[in-house]
Write a structure and sequence with these properties.
single chain, about 270 residues, Heat Shock Protein 90, Actin, Chain A, domain 4, 2 domains, six-stranded mixed β-sheet, three-stranded antiparallel β-sheet, about 25% strand, flat
Length: about 270
């Protein structure tokens, strides 16, 4: 896969200075950071600013009874914050001159909230100089009745599903990305086709790690009619393609879904 996709974190490392973050500093280094001019303004909003950086994180409003979901979402936002502040401190220690403040913007919000399913999505970006910032995206899928967090792997009883998901993803991505891949007049059509094919086979091939950023899509009855899978910048195409998304219909997933979860899906 050309870019790592992490269910809790999707930060793509490629190309410019902002895409080569320094290792996260320990808590002691973060505690020693220069005092920001603004601090948290509510229980769910963290806002800090200094000469070197601007940071704003909005945590989701999660029912305290959903402890596994609350824990994972809270750990994710804390990890993003601590890694970012650690990178700022590391850059300062190396004498880096901040022409523009580095930025971290991140918001977590519930996008599905039902008795059977709760989904929290994280969206934001991190800018550390260079030509552009990089998006931060994550999803957290939770089953309140059983108290289970559901990475995409956990829905399925067999590995044959990954071939199905891969085939549907590549077909959908080819339609979305074909105009973009034809923009470079300096490359031959054959070269573009080969490059695009390699992007897709690496980033959308039948590897579960390629599909970790997903969200169940519900029908009017509250049943899962599809999984929407998002691909990170650089995962299946150049940065200009953004974060393309495809939907995998429930009827294609159902033959592979574990018996315990089939009642959550729309029937064919």
């Amino acid at each position: 896969m050309r870019a790592p996709v992490v269910l809790g974190l999707m930060c793509v490392l490629c190309g410019c200075q902002s895409e080569q973050p320094a290792p996260a500093a320990g808590s002691a280094a973060i505690e020693g950071a220069a005092a920001p001019t603004a601090s948290a303004v509510s229980d769910r909003v963290q806002a800090r600013r200094s000469d070197e950086y601007e940071l704003r994180i909005v945590d989701a409003d999660i029912d305290p009874g959903h402890r596994p979901l609350l824990r994972e979402a809270t750990l994710y936002s804390a990890q993003m914050r601590d890694e970012f502040l650690g990178q700022v401190e590391a850059a300062k220690a190396e004498g880096f001159e901040f022409e523009l403040p580095w930025q971290l913007e991140l918001e977590l919000a519930k996008v599905v909230d039902s008795e059977a399913l709760v989904v929290v999505q994280a969206n934001g970006y991190q800018f550390q100089g260079g030509a552009h910032g990089l998006p931060l995206q994550a999803s957290f899928v939770y089953l309140p009745i059983s108290g289970e967090m559901m990475p995409i792997n956990d829905w399925f009883a067999d590995d044959a599903v990954w071939s199905t998901i891969s085939q549907v993803s590549i077909s959908g991505l080819q339609s979305q990305l074909a105009p973009l891949m034809g923009e470079d007049d300096d490359d031959s059509a054959e070269g573009l086709d080969a490059e695009a094919g390699q992007w897709l086979s690496d980033g959308a091939g039948p590897d579960p790690q390629n599909f970790q950023l997903y969200m169940p899509v519900l029908d009017d009855a509250g049943l899962i009619r599809a999984f929407a899978v998002t691909f990170a910048p650089y995962q299946v195409a150049p940065y200009a393609a953004g974060s393309p998304q495809v939907e995998i219909a429930a009827e294609l997933l159902l033959p592979h879904v574990k018996e315990a979860y089939r009642g959550l899906f729309a029937a064919e």
